[in-house]
Amino acid sequence: MSESRTHDDVFYDHMRKGDEHRDIVKFMLEQSGYSVHPYGYEQAISSIKSKLGKNARGSKTVRRIRSSPDLLVYDEQKNDLMLVEVKMRNSDKPKIAPELIDRIKEFWNDTILVLVVPYENVFYAQRISELETKPVYYRLADFEKFQDIFTRVKPECISRYRDIAREAVQKNRGASLEE
Questions:
Q1: pTM of this prediction?
Q2: How far apart are CA 157 and CA 133, in angstroms?
Q3: Phi/psi of residue 85, each to 5°?
Q4: Hey, CA dihedral for 120, 123, 129, 132, is it positive or negative?
Q5: Series of mean pLDDT values for 10-residue runs along the chain (179 residues)
Q6: Which one is the CATH code of 7-171: 3.10.20.30, 3.20.20.450, 1.20.120.910, 3.40.1350.10?
Q7: Which pLDDT score is estimated for 2?
Q8: Domain ranges of the chain
Q9: Element (H, E) at 127
Q10: Largest Cα–Cα separation, the chain
Q11: Which residues make Cβ contacts (< 8 Å) with residue 173, sequence separation at least 6?
């Protein structure tokens, strides 16, 4: 990190880049008839996150809050409430920190992880409880197509947002989004 950029600068840049992909997924779900609400820790404690000391960051409460999913999704047709975590990766073999998967499994095991990658279908999803903890995932072997989990999302909706997501990935190509 350069001396002119503070820890807060990096934190807010990372949040902004992640927000783009979370918002794309949110819009797709809303346009498909789901009710979608922001949920993650960025919503609740972003203003105090940078003030937490090292000891506090490792506490069980802080780990739970930091691993909280991005979205709360309600499917009125199925009367089903889902937690959704969105991650963007610019690789055909996306890396997701094993510690992150372990934290989500520990506190939010019923979460659905949505993976946005600039290849083929672009949008993939899998229930955290069904993911093995490992450093590299294969979008086709470890994940389902997004619309297989969110069955109300139509192919036209995927097509509409595919290019938008690819552009956002390209724009953030140099970003470190491995958490």
A1: 0.82
A2: 31
A3: -110, 130
A4: positive
A5: 55 58 95 93 62 69 84 96 93 86 93 92 94 87 94 95 88 54
A6: 3.40.1350.10
A7: 47
A8: 7-171
A9: strand 123-127
A10: 52
A11: 90
